[in-house]
Every structure is written in structure tokens, then in C-alpha cells.
């Protein structure tokens, strides 16, 4: 087993102590795997991808499905993120997309991306999931006057090329409808966009999957997978699940230990979140912080923030490159300093919560959905920090692939196929350090 980060980040038996966990009924329990069983499909990973895929397989296609989660249901990144439903799930500019894939394929990608946002919203509506849904758009904010032109260009591109509803705001205009601050020099909005309590959403999906017949087991980490007479033996907690098909849905927490074909394809990047105590009306007024929509500051090392329903302020950023508990605390202190530099009138506001999770970046800089050649192993990963938008939709698309006779999905090529493996994979964190240093210099 290969872990890139310190062992602290892989403590599957421990709760996360996030703000989200303070908002739920902790009596929600699932059993661990305690006996040998047989099934048609085993889904490994209890996040948005795995649960959405399992739900679709069971409800829409009447499949026999077992889902395994290494921690508790709600342990992984699907329940740790900031709850932003953003676009696009790619780490490249639209210009690069046009050059690499062409305009037609790029437009198809953005069409699928909008479908992803709508799919997440529709799941919330269909199953009446109470997950503190808020906002009707996303804002991207210019951190310096020099960024404003690029914001206008992006807004125009979204509108003219992809038919996305956008609106541009000057610094003064955004002061009136959004907020003031030291890094606010205009913004643009795009729809659809919103935010959720990610843990409540996940638990709502899991409940529906269980109702639909999915057998869910938590604290059941997969230690080994063997193939015997055309079937898979999935070994967890010393027990064996015999299955015909396997879905890998572990995303950033995949540990390069189950399938050689999938190893060394993910660069898990730590993302940290801090949340303040509830802010008073006078504190909010001091920065005219009005909006409840999610906001992204578009630095190269971007950070993101939003006001929660109880007037706490959430602030997120890229994390450290160590992964220990101590390094997380140090990073959270730096983020607090950054937040209070951007919003100086909140310099005395206490931080109540801090935690981190892993997002999955790949060499292709777009998600990967598909099936391994010559084997009944299916995968979906690499959402480039846009899992709320992409993962539930991807899980549903993956379910369609599993039950079809086709080897390909009718979705954009951006999503299809595996990325290239990272060269010299043990150096992945070194590559990340270089990238973070470069971005830090550019931002300054």
C-alpha cells in the first residue's frame, strides 16, 4: 500500500470533527461487513460517486449491489467539502480546451457540466433531501484590478459559446449586492450555481440507496481483490464478497493498492476549510456581506468562501503537502490570517472549526469515467475539486455503462478514458510543491 501523505490523513476509524458533523443526527448507523456474501456488483467507496452509482443500479436497473466504505458513511471528501456546486470540473482554460478537443467537444463538455449541476439539484428535489440548499448562482471575484478584464472575458465566453447565463459587476456594483473587502475588484456570476450541506446531502442519498435495496457496509475497508474463475473475491474485515463486477469510486483517497491499472493516476491534493463563530449583524455590515451565494476568489491559488445559514463564515483554500495533524493546524492558522487580511474588520472573530480532505487531480485535468479493458472493473474519479457538480452525475452515468453492452458512454470525450500515469509517481508531491510555489509567486 502506498500513501503519499502522513498516516494521519488516512485514519478511517476516526470522525472528521467538521462543522457538518455538528449539524446531523449522529445516530445514523450502518453495519460493518461481518460475513461472506455474494452479489452481482460491488461498489467500493461511499461518497457521491459510489452512492449515486449504487442507487441508480438498484433503483433504475434492479441490480443486486453491495457498497463498501472504509470509514463511516460520511467519512470521505463528499462529506468534508465546502458544498459548492461549481463549474467546470477541469483544470484548464477554455482556450486550452478548444485547442485540445475542439469547439464542438468543448461545448458538449460544458453541456454535460450543466447537466451535472442540474442532476445534483434534481436529486435534492426528488428525494426531498434537507441539505440547507442556498444560493441561485456562483460568483467569481477579481482579487486585483488586473483580473477584472479576464473576468469579463470569461463571462462573455460562457454566455456566447455555451449559453450559460452570466452577469458582470463592477467593484461598486458588487459592493452593493455581494460584499466589500481587500480583494474585491469586481465579479461575475453564472447559473446554475448553489451550495449545500454536503454531509446532509450524502446521508440523504445513502438513505435512498438503502431503501432501493443497496446493501451498505461502513468501516469495511477493502484490503485485497482476487480473481477466481471469472469472479472477483473482494476481501474486507477478513470476509469475502464474491461479485461479477467492481466499481472503484474512492477518488482522492485511492491508495494505489488494489489494481495496477489504476495506480499512480491520481495526485491527491489537500484542501482545508475553516469556519468562524456566528457573525453579528454589525460584523456582517462592516464588510456589507450580503450574499448567500458561494464565492470564488480567482487567484492562481484560489480560495473560496460563503456565509452559512447561522451566519458562520466558511473559508477554504489549498492545504499543506504533509498531511499530519500538526501540519493541518499550521495551515489553518495561515488561512485564518489570510481571511482576516481580506476581511480586516473581522480580525477578532474566533475560528470554531477546521478540517481538511483530499481532492483528486490527474494528468488529463478532467474527470475519468469508464471501464478497464478486458475486465469488469469500472471507475470514475478526478473531479478536479468539483465533486458536488460532477460526482453524483458521474455515478449515474457509470451505472448506465455497467448495465449496457456498449464500451463507451454518450458523453463528452473530456470525461472518457483513463489519464496517463504520473511519471516517477513517488515525486507527485514534489511536482505539487513546485506548482504551489509558482502560483504563490504569480499571485504576489
How would you characterize the overall build of this protein?
By secondary structure, the protein is of the alpha/beta class. It contains 10 helices and 20 strands. It is globular, with a radius of gyration of 21 Å. It has a domain at 7-81 and 199-267 and 363-426: 3-Layer(bba) Sandwich (FAD/NAD(P)-binding domain), CATH 3.50.50.60. α1 (48-61) runs parallel beside α6, α1 (48-61) packs parallel to α9 and α2 (94-101) packs across α3 (103-126). It has helices at 48-61, 94-101, 103-126, 148-162, 171-177, 198-211, 281-286, 325-342, 387-403, 428-443, and strands spanning 37-38, 41-44, 65-68, 84-85, 138-141, 165-169, 187-191, 194-195, 215-217, 222-228, 231-236, 239-243, 245-248, 267-276, 295-297, 303-307, 313-318, 351-361, 368-371, 377-381. The model has no long low-confidence stretch (mean pLDDT 93). It starts with 36 loop residues before the first strand and ends with a helix.
How is the topology of this model organized?
Blueprint: E1 37-38, E2 41-44, H1 48-61, E3 65-68, E4 84-85, H2 94-101, H3 103-126, E5 138-141, H4 148-162, E6 165-169, H5 171-177, E7 187-191, E8 194-195, H6 198-211, E9 215-217, E10 222-228, E11 231-236, E12 239-243, E13 245-248, E14 267-276, H7 281-286, E15 295-297, E16 303-307, E17 313-318, H8 325-342, E18 351-361, E19 368-371, E20 377-381, H9 387-403, H10 428-443
Parallel strand pairs: 1-12, 2-3, 2-13, 3-9, 5-15, 13-20
Antiparallel strand pairs: 4-8, 5-7, 6-7, 10-11, 11-12, 14-17, 14-18, 15-16, 16-17, 19-20
Helix pairs in contact: 1-6, 1-9, 2-3, 3-9
Amino acid at each position: 500500500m502506498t500513501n503519499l501523505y502522513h498516516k494521519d490523513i488516512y485514519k478511517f476509524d476516526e470522525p472528521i470533527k467538521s462543522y457538518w458533523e455538528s449539524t446531523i443526527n449522529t445516530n445514523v448507523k450502518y453495519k460493518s461487513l461481518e460475513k461472506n456474501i455474494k452479489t452481482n456488483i460491488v461498489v467500493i467507496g461511499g461518497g457521491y460517486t459510489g452512492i449515486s452509482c449504487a442507487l441508480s443500479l438498484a433503483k433504475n436497473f434492479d441490480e443486486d449491489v453491495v457498497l463498501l466504505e472504509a470509514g463511516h458513511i460520511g467519512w470521505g471528501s463528499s462529506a468534508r467539502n465546502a458544498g459548492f456546486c461549481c463549474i467546470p470540473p477541469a483544470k484548464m482554460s477554455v482556450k486550452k480546451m478548444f485547442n485540445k478537443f475542439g469547439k464542438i467537444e468543448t461545448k458538449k463538455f460544458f453541456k454535460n457540466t450543466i447537466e451535472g449541476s442540474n442532476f445534483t439539484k434534481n436529486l435534492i428535489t426528488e428525494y426531498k433531501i434537507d441539505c440547507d440548499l442556498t444560493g441561485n448562482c456562483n460568483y467569481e471575484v477579481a482579487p486585483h484590478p488586473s483580473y477584472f478584464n479576464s473576468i469579463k472575458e470569461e463571462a462573455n465566453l460562457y454566455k456566447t459559446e455555451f449559453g450559460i447565463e452570466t452577469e458582470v459587476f463592477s467593484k461598486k456594483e458588487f459592493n452593493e449586492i455581494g460584499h466589500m473587502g481587500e480583494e474585491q475588484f469586481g465579479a461575475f456570476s453564472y447559473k446554475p450555481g448553489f451550495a449545500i450541506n454536503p454531509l446532509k446531502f450524502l446521508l440523504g442519498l445513502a438513505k435512498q440507496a438503502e431503501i432501493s435495496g443497496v446493501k451498505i457496509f461502513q468501516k469495511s475497508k477493502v484490503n485485497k481483490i482476487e480473481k477466481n474463475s471469472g469472479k472477483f473475491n473482494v476481501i474486507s474485515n477478513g470476509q469475502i464478497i464474491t461479485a461479477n463486477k467492481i466499481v472503484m469510486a474512492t477518488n482522492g483517497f485511492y491508495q494505489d493498492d488494489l489494481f495496477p491499472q489504476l495506480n499512480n493516476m491520481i495526485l491527491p491534493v489537500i484542501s482545508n476549510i475553516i469556519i468562524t463563530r456566528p457573525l453579528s449583524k454589525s460584523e456582517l455590515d462592516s464588510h456589507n456581506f450580503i450574499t448567500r451565494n458561494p464565492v470564488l476568489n480567482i487567484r492562481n491559488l484560489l480560495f473560496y468562501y460563503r456565509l452559512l445559514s447561522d451566519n458562520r463564515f466558511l473559508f477554504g483554500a489549498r492545504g499543506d503537502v504533509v498531511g499530519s495533524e500538526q501540519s493541518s493546524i499550521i495551515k489553518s492558522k495561515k488561512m485564518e490570517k489570510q481571511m482576516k487580511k481580506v476581511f480586516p474588520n473581522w480580525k477578532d472573530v474566533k475560528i470554531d472549526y477546521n478540517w481538511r480532505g483530499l481532492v483528486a487531480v490527474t494528468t488529463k485535468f478532467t474527470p475519468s469515467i469508464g471501464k478497464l479493458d478486458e475486465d469488469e472493473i469500472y471507475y470514475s474519479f478526478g473531479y478536479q475539486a468539483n465533486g458536488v457538480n460532477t460526482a453524483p452525475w458521474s455515478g449515474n452515468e457509470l451505472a448506465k455503462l455497467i448495465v449496457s453492452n456498449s464500451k463507451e458512454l454518450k458523453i463528452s470525450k473530456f470525461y472518457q478514458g483513463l489519464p496517463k500515469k504520473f511519471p516517477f509517481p513517488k515525486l507527485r508531491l514534489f511536482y505539487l510543491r513546485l506548482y504551489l510555489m509558482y502560483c504563490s509567486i504569480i499571485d504576489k
